[in-house]
Amino acid sequence: MRNNGLADMNEHNILIDELIKLLEGGSAHATFEDAVAGLSHELLSVKPDDLPYSIWQLVEHIRIAQWDMLEFSRDANHQSPKWPDDYWPKEAAPADEEAWNKALAQIKSDREEFIELLRSGDIYKALEHGDGQSILHEALQIADHNSYHTAEIILIRRLLKAWK
Question: What domain of life is recorded for the organism (predicted)?
Answer without folding.
Answer: Bacteria
